[in-house]
User: Fold this.
Amino acid sequence: MKRLVKVLAVLCAMALGLCALAEESGTAGETANGDTLYQVALLQSLVQGYYDGIVTVGELKQHGDTGIGTFEGVNGEMIVLDGTVYQAVADGSIAVPSDDETVPFSNVTFFDVDETLTLSGIGDMAALQDAMNGVVKALGANCFYMVRLEGTFDAIKVRSEYKQEKPYRALDVALADDQTEFDYEDVRGTIVGLYCPDYMGGLNTPGWHFHFINEDRTRGGHVLQVSVAEAQAAFDMTDGFEMALTREAAFQDMELAKDVNEAIHRAETATTGNND
Ligand SMILES: [Zn+2]
Assistant:
C-alpha cells in the first residue's frame, strides 16, 4: 500500500510537471517575443531621411500588439493598440492601413502589465515624464518599457505630417514644412509610450516617446504637449531587444554613427504652428 501511494505521488508529480511545462510553452507560443522589444531600423536612419519601408505592417504585427512608429515616406504617425495598427495621417484623422503597407521605423512588443500607476492633475509633459520615471527607476532604468496610458486629457497637442516624396529630406527639415498640429481639449483616449534607456542613444533616443489615439479611434498623432486630468498607466517592462535592418544599398551607405541628436530633438519636440 505504501509503495502504491509512493508510485501515485511520483505519477502525480510527473503529471503536474508536464502541466507546468505545457503551460509555459503555451504562454511562450502565444507571445513568441513576449518580453522582447522589436525595433525596425534606427531613429537615426529615419531622422537622416531613410523613409523606405523595411518590414510590412503584416510582419510588424507578428512582433507585437502595442507600439509606435511611422509609415513609408513618413506618411503619418503609427499607434499600435490591441493588435491593430492605426495610422494618424496628415489631417489628424485615423486610417487602418493594409498589411501590405510598409514601415521604415517602429517599436512594438506584446504587451503585458508589470506595473500600474494612477495619474491625476499632471500639468505638462515634464511632469508626466517625472511621474513615469518614478516607476522606471523603481523597476530598473536599464530595460525598455512600453506604456499604455488610458484616461482623460485636459489638453493634448499632437502632430502628424504629409507623406514625403523622393528625394527624401532629413526628418527635421521635412517636418519644418510638412508637420501638421492639432489641439484637443477634455478628450478621452490612450497614449502609447516607449521608454528607452540612456545607452540607446545610438539606435533610438533615450527617454520617452508618446503617440496618442482618442477613444473613438478617429484622431491621433505624435504627442508634443499634454496635461492629464485622470489616467491609468500600465507599464510593460521589456528585457529583450530585436532589430530589423535592410540590405538595401541606400541603407548600407548611410553614416549611422553620425551624431544627429539635435535633429532628433527638433523632430520629436518642435512645434511649427502649421495648424491645418
Ligand atoms: Zn513619434
Remarks:
- Helices lie at 2-30, 43-47, 57-61, 125-139, 171-178, 249-252, 261-269.
- The pocket of zinc ion is lined by residues 68, 77, 209, 211, 222 (CB under 6 Å).
- Confidence is low (pLDDT under 50) at residues 7-31.
